[in-house]
Amino acid sequence: MDKKVSLISVFFSILIFCLMDGQSYAAELEVGKDKMYETISSAIEQDGNGDIIKVYPGN
Asked: Structure pTM?
């Protein structure tokens, strides 16, 4: 019985994962020298709701 419950749990977990769309994930925008964005303001202009902006040390 426990094996059957485990298999059902795994099935529903995979199903939920497959039904999630890509927009449910936060993007990580990196700011710094040799990163995706050179300025914080340029990253803010491109960010979406829930995105994460990582600022690295430098000028």
From this structure: 0.54
